[in-house]
Design a protein that fits this description.
Strand content of chain B: 15-25%
CATH superfamily of the largest domain in chain A: Nucleotide-binding domain of ferredoxin-NADP reductase (FNR) module
Number of domains of chain A: 2
Helix content of chain A: 10-25%
Order of helices and strands of chain A: EEHEEEEHEEHEEEHHEHEEEEH
Largest interface: A-B, 49 and 52 residues
Oligomer: heterodimer
Strand order of the largest sheet of chain A: 4-3-7-1-2-6-5
Order of helices and strands of chain B: EEEEEHHEHEHHEHEEEHEHEHH
CATH class of chain B: Alpha Beta
Chain lengths: ~280, ~325
């Protein structure tokens, strides 16, 4: 890092390269949109767990929105967008043929170089990056068990876009699958027992309370685990120190130190400071 | 820029290639994941505020979007002056002058940071370093419990701090003002009279956003500082007021996102224009603002920025 390297065109001081990319397909369903974007450079470099920053279309002034990569096929990447506020609503309303500005892939992603078997645990929209992870693990012929926890009936449509190996569903209202939280489903399911038996690595994504419970569950079963976190972000590249979460290692930036962190570093302080919007 | 308008500006003894610099605190170039210092489109780099001791910063959440703006409460997270000094060779890669933003819980802390930097720069064989052009005293952070805003909002305290810092360095000494005051001219005048070479304004506006579900303060620090286009007309008014009252050059900032808006700051008396929120919303903003500024001058057949500076302040 001795000299200033010339950055490619479109690169700003925060290190993010902004590339305009065509939206090629949009599937809208209930509260979500599955958006496919032609982004060859992102698709080539992407690893499961990484994210992209998207410019909000039509907004006069808006921070870019971080969205994890949901799937990657050839030159295309898919994002699973849940309408939450004004920014995600505008993104979810993207039409095929539109152009969207995108930076990425950003963040560290899941390390699966030495993974022999994997237990994937999702809470709600947290399933988004785990689909990409499952695809990647399946391509490597690594045994995978997946658990998807949903709040209830309203979130069931999410299941229609998923293609997860050995999938167990849990709903808190008992509408589908095991009645209870996803952690209660892990306790109740023979599939989880099988994953524990195999010493599977645990990969989780979901609300912080779920990740904290998953940390305790993994630790009780002597399993190594990782969680992907979310936070309100500004730069997305580590420059602004805005998206930190409290961990046992101090404040870590979700965008640059994460979004994937070992479950053990997610502490009670992480939860207390409610890093999840 | 050959043949185009002359964008060079002068802040005291410091000549800058153009007026667009970064607002301190909005990005930490050395912390960018997986990247070295990139070729930044700024004429000068102002790192995040450095304090005597390391600071871990405020609890999260620290930042979120607001209508036409951003609210943040980072809390001056920084590794402290010794770690900052150790990292100086990495900043040399930027190849542009660096203005060090200095913070502290009390006046003595600010002075200790300036003293320590001067010692380091004077030391023979101190190693590679960027060109340290000067210091910006951040007496205006709304997100720390002690120091910061409390000095900037008190003209007498600011006068004493600038007077005490002045003999410590021959480099550029800048005071960065808070807009959280009734009269922005009083602290500006105090800083200029005490020997500041330039004045930066404005820092962020102390503000509050609630979590829509819990109806509790959203930020971990409860309150934060508001920046972005939402504050630009107020910042512009404050720059104009200060420009009419003091003779030192001004670094104007507050929600600038385009070349025209940078030109407006200059028309209100600013010499340089700092960009912060715009860079967070679009990493390409600084380069675009600079291009647009040049185009604005050309479109108005103006040879340089001196022809624009302060024109908004004239009676006719």
């Amino acid at each position: 890092m001795s000299a200033a390297p010339d950055r490619p065109d479109g690169c700003g001081p925060t290190g993010a390269v902004v590339v305009p990319c065509p939206v090629v397909e949009v599937r809208r369903f209930a509260d979500w949109s599955l958006v496919w974007i032609e982004a060859p450079a992102v698709a080539r470099a992407a690893r499961p767990g990484q994210f992209v920053m998207l410019a909000v279309p039509g907004a006069a002034f808006a921070l870019r929105r971080p969205l994890s990569l949901h799937r990657v096929h050839g030159d295309r990447v898919a994002l699973l967008i849940e309408r939450r506020g004004e920014g995600t609503r505008r993104l979810a309303e993207l039409e095929a043929g539109a152009e969207i500005e995108l930076s990425g892939p950003l963040g560290n992603g899941f390390d699966i170089a030495t993974t022999c078997s994997a237990l994937l645990v999702a809470g709600g929209i947290g399933v988004a990056p785990l689909q990409f992870l499952a695809d990647e693990l399946r391509a490597r012929r690594i045994p995978v068990w997946t658990f998807v926890g949903l709040r209830g009936k309203r979130q069931l449509p999410l299941l229609t876009v998923l293609d997860l190996p050995r999938q167990t569903v849990a709903t808190e209202d008992g509408e589908r699958g095991i009645h209870g939280t996803v952690i209660e489903a892990l306790d109740a399911s023979p599939a989880a027992a099988e994953a524990v038996e195999k010493g599977a690595e645990v990969f989780g994504c979901g609300p912080l309370p779920m990740l904290v419970a998953l940390r305790d569950w993994a630790s009780m079963h002597h399993l190594i685990g990782y969680g992907s976190l979310e936070a309100h972000m500004a730069c997305g590249t580590g420059a602004c120190h805005g998206c930190v979460v409290a961990t046992t290692r101090g404040y870590l930036r979700v965008c640059a130190d994460g979004p994937v962190l070992p479950l053990q570093v997610i502490g009670e302080r992480t939860l207390a400071a409610r890093g999840t919007p | 820029m050959t043949g185009g308008p002359d964008l060079r500006v002068r802040l005291g003894a410091l000549e800058l290639a153009h007026p667009i610099i970064n607002a301190s605190g909005t990005y930490d170039v050395l912390a960018v994941a997986g990247h070295g210092p990139s070729t930044v489109p700024f004429s000068c780099y102002v790192p995040k505020t450095v304090t005597l001791e390391p600071r871990t910063g405020n609890p999260p959440p620290r930042i979120t979007e607001t209508p036409s703006g951003i609210i943040n409460a980072i809390g001056l997270e920084n590794p402290g002056i010794e770690a900052f000094i150790a990292d100086l060779p990495r900043l040399a890669g930027l190849r542009i002058p660096v203005i060090i933003s200095v913070g502290g819980a009390r006046p003595a802390d600010y002075l200790a940071v300036v003293r320590r930097m001067e010692e380091r720069l004077a030391a023979a064989g101190a190693g590679r370093s960027p060109a340290i052009a000067g210091y910006e005293l951040n007496v205006s952070c709304p997100n720390v419990a002690a120091g910061g805003l409390s000095i900037g909002a008190d003209p007498e305290a600011l006068r004493q701090l600038v007077s005490a810092a002045r003999p410590l360095t021959a480099r550029l000494l800048i005071a960065k003002l808070t807009p959280n005051v009734t009269d922005i001219v009083a602290p500006a005048r105090a800083a200029a009279e005490a020997g500041a070479d330039a004045i930066s304004l404005v820092n962020t506006f102390k503000a509050l956003v609630l979590d829509p579900v819990s109806l509790r303060p959203f930020l971990g620090n409860r309150t934060g500082g508001l920046c972005g286009p939402a504050i630009r007309p107020i910042a512009l008014r404050m720059v104009a007021e200060v420009a009419m009252s003091v003779d030192v050059p001004l670094i104007g900032m507050g929600g600038v996102t385009s070349g025209l808006e940078a030109l407006e700051m200059i028309a209100c008396g600013a010499t340089a224009v700092a960009v912060g929120a715009a860079t967070l919303a679009d990493p390409r903003a600084p380069a675009r603002i600079l291009e647009q500024l040049s185009a604005e001058l050309a479109a108005r057949s103006l040879a340089g920025l001196d022809d624009v500076r302060g024109t908004a302040l004239r009676d006719s």
